[in-house]
Amino acid sequence: LAIRDSALRAADARLKEADRAAADGREERVRAEALLDRRDQACREIETRCREFLGCAIAEIDTSGTERFQEMSAADLEERAERRATERERLGPVNLRAEIEAEDVGKQIDGLTTESTDLLAAIARLRQGIAELNREGQARLQKSFETVNLAFQDIFTTLFGGGRAYLSLVEGSDPLAAGIEIMASPPGKRLQLLSLLSGGEQALTALALLFAVFSSNPAPICILDEVDAPLDDANVDRFCGLLSRMAEDSLTRFLVITHHRMTMARMNRLFGVTMAERGVSQLVSVDLQVAESLREQLSFV
Questions:
Q1: Residue 282 contacts by C-beta under 8 Å, 6 or more apart in sequence?
Q2: Is residue 116 pLDDT above 90, yes or no?
Q3: d(CA 269, CA 152)
Q4: CA distances (Å), 69 to each of 54, 60, 79, in order?
Q5: CA dist., res. 213 & res. 207, Å (int)
Q6: What is this structure's pTM?
């Protein structure tokens, strides 16, 4: 009986030890199942992330060329992955319409290329037209310059009673880009620039040039404002003679604003402002030709 009791106690001890081992096994199983669930969840998350970021399943990923990553530690791989993720985020979200937009941009580029070609062709035609206009302008300006130069020489001699003058192109032979110098030689003086002449001579030379330009391209009306102010009586007489000749040879009507008595005496009609009463102005006109005929009639009577 004692032996059996001892064996029973030993069996109970082994039973308790087995129960404890079974309990530990159950706990280990529960922990293993929980770990397996977490791994399954992690696998599903990785699968989902793979489809979101790469657009394919894990089994479809091409793993060729990844042997060099197997030697890297988990920390290095994690750091590399974080760095690549940061670089990807900097690129912005994936544009699903990129292909369509690329086609639209390609069409726009084709349109711009066509427009650029047309624009370059238009520029070439425009430059050709400008060159033709420049050639025609040079020819016309050269012809006008020669005409004005001849008229200027003739009118200068008439106004000064002799001497000579001419126009010259400076700073190039192209009349469109060249400047013009006025060379004048009044009677008894050497040939020199216009700026070296006296004030009266400059005014008379300028009048000669003005009438030369006007004679080459006349207008119905010509207004002269105090052009005889710096001239002496002899020059005023020659100026009035030239003005009368031009008025007879053309259909131009000359309106002269002047205070010089000789100029007023050579005009056909005078217009002036008088003040018959204090503070009351009145416009007065006198036809000198009618006045002259009346004077002749009165003298005859």
A1: 273, 274, 275, 276
A2: yes
A3: 28
A4: 19, 19, 12
A5: 10
A6: 0.53
